[in-house]
Amino acid sequence: MARHGIYPHDIIPPRSQYYDSGRFGRMFGKLPPFAADTPDIRAALLDIGKAGGIMDAKDKLNEGPQKLITDPTLSAKNSDNPTLSAGFTFLGQFLDHDITADPTSSLERQSDPEQIANFRTPSLGLDNVYGAGPGGSPHLYDQGAGQGIKFLLEPTGTPGKNDVPRNSQRVALIGDPRDDENLIISQLQVAFLQFHNAAVDYVRTKIKLTVPGEVFAEAQRIVRWHYQWMVVHEFLKKSCGAAVVDTILQNGRKFYKWHNEPFIPVEFSVAAYRFGHSQIRPSYRANFTGNPGDTPFFAMIFTPTPSDPLDPDDLSGGCRAPRRFVDWPTFFDFHDGNVKPNKKIDTTLSTALFKLPGSVVPHPDPKANPSSLAQRNLLRHLTFSLPSGQRVASAMQLPVLSKGDLADLKPHGLDDRTPLWFYILREAATVENGERLGPVGARIVAEVFLGLIQGDRASYLSQDPEWQPFLPTVDPSKKGDDFGMIDLLRFAQVA
User: Fold this and answer.
1) What pLDDT score was predicted for residue 118?
2) pLDDT at 238 over 50
3) Burial zone of 229 (CB within 10 Å; 0-12 exposed, 13-18 middle, 19+ buried)
4) In whole angstroms, how far apart are CA 38 and each of 45, 105, 448?
């Protein structure tokens, strides 16, 4: 007889490896799960990821958002990363929304990833920006002066600062609703909309194309290829290490393979690529002049019960107000002294992430759908029967962390069969001092991103591997291969 509830042990997903397109799958399909889905294991994972537990930074949130940034003693267990600025956390979130979308995900049942459709084309093609294009998503495009090939934008109420277009109920009219989850990613969406619009102007004035369809196609190619280049040569090299990225580009991928078209491995989506959660700060300075008196707008990333829904006191998305804009020199390094770091990659998460608001976790159930982000990530290892970090490291023939490196998991019996997400975070802290991913995490993340770009027949790596960016850089003396986020933001005229 089948049992009901949150421990469905009766049907175990097949241990296979997926090689086709359009779904999630596995990189290491022959490896067994790190543990059986039992009440004891679930209780252990909930304890590891609970508020006040071993993963909670115990930030002093009651001191307020500004002090949490200026006084490091208030986040003593949540160290700053000296090599990655605050914006890369949200760029990573934006990239995730470009390649994956699984609206059916649940923590209440075991799932075979091969039967879960990815509702996002698995490529770095900016589907979350372009939607289905001017023909399939005409509501995203300006049908007036933009001739249907430029994106719509709306003013925030502050001169020169834009918001995404919204309907009368404040719902964002964008290619992916997740890009309005918080103010920073919403403003990053605006940056990419304006990046495309600026590319349209570039094609008209520099390349001299005039037919709207031809202008759009060339502008889209320019945007996508510069974006893909930035992902490879800035985001991946900073997050994974230049040596790992260059080795894969020169010698090929070892572990991420497919037969027809790329798929999204659950070892990547459920574990390795969730390293960004440990980088999130409890609070941010969104801008320099947004609050009354032209003072900075400091705010918590989340508060359990935001204030005014039209202009909350945290960084919630889904609303428009004069102060709800981002000044990008706080998030990316324009060499003006204003940039702030993100947090190190380790097993410590900001305290704000242990009580997600209802807008992020609708109708939370503490057992089936907890409000702690750490608990949710750990439970997904059971949902998708993920292998342990130790087994994955051995399969990749990479050094395995010792039991001593994971001694805080010994009370739960998981110091030698560690959930892959936790293992990758601890590996980054142990091997790379939290400044970038360690060997296992870096190899998985870099291989998947590079494989997705290589598997896209329209990408620069497929069509012209020797191509280099040609749009202007902040420093005109730089070569095209230095094109990065600050150059993208400047060209888009948002910084």
Assistant:
1) 46
2) yes
3) buried
4) 11, 20, 31
